[in-house]
Amino acid sequence: MLSLCCLLVAIASVSAGGNSKSGPPVEGFFVTEFLKLVLIPTRIIVHIDVGTHKGIVGGSRAQNCQFPSIVYLEIFNQPTDFSYSACGGTLVDATHVLTAAHCVEGKVRRIKVNIGSNNKRSPGSQSTTVSKFVIHGGYVGTKYVVKNDIAMLTLNTRVREARCVKFAKLASKGETFGTSRCIAAGWGKFAYKGQSPDQLFKVTLPAIPADVCKRRSKMRISDGILCAGDFTAGGTSTCQGDSGGPLYCRNRSYQTVLAGVTSFGSRCNGEVSAFTDVGYFRDWIDSNLVTTITVSQIGHIPQIGYISKAKRNSSEDC
């Protein structure tokens, strides 16, 4: 399939380096344990496909232009144009979208970005495509643990702010939200194995302090995760179909900021949802907004350059 010379293939085990993981599996993450080759310069890294994306349960339909920074991502596999997944994302400036790492992990051929529309079937006013993306190098997505689930997409064309298109204000470095009431939005399913809507939906979720979430959640909560929701089954939550979408919260100055990126949760049953904490990863985000990265065509990814800027563990070194 690939014509490569002088490269070593680093095989990562399903347990992320061969060590057995303690604690219960991450509920709601249905891991297809087949190996996917993700080509980056000088090496091939084997990744695991984390197949659950999340959406809205128990919410309500969003008003037109209510969330002008949210975007809908349609992700196409290679070598064909089979549309294998869809995610949400958040527009953070004229050329960048923040989303979840597991949304773009794997052999991505191209990504369409629908901007400025609540209807995922209707092209937005400034829809475009992605030229390259960066996945956090410390990203782990297995049945037992998910961490550093964040990625930055670079757009092919510049986006202009308009009535229904705005850049999100990011949470400050280290900013926390206590028990503030936050809002998650997306096009995900209404129930586990349910249907996904064409229209954007929203749900109000209270933020949960990190120490409380780690102590009470059945899921494995690592640093860099922001929890929202409650511990009562059957309530509101995120669900399948919209990973990578935004969690908006109000800060101490009463400004609405992007506080989280939808990551994982418990089978759409109304329990706590987990989001990648934007304030925790603010340094990583800022570095990928100001740094110009030039990527040539890599392997069998003719339209999108994949970069991992992290230090690799010993099992992945060439």
UniProtKB/TrEMBL annotation:
Assigned keywords, A-Z: Disulfide bond, Signal
Domain of life: Eukaryota
InterPro entries noted in UniProt: Peptidase_S1_PA, Peptidase_S1_PA_chymotrypsin, Peptidase_S1A, Trypsin_dom, TRYPSIN_HIS, TRYPSIN_SER
This protein's record includes keyword Disulfide bond: yes
Annotated Peptidase S1 domain residues: 55-285
Signal peptide start and end residues: 1-16
Keyword Ion transport: no
SMART domains for this protein: Tryp_SPc
GO molecular function: serine-type endopeptidase activity
Gene Ontology terms: biological process: proteolysis
Matches recorded under PANTHER family: ACROSIN-RELATED (PTHR24252), HYALIN (PTHR24252:SF7)
Family: Belongs to the peptidase S1 family. CLIP subfamily.
UniProt name for this protein: Chymotrypsin-1-like
Native species: Octopus vulgaris
Lineage of producing organism: Eukaryota, Metazoa, Spiralia, Lophotrochozoa, Mollusca
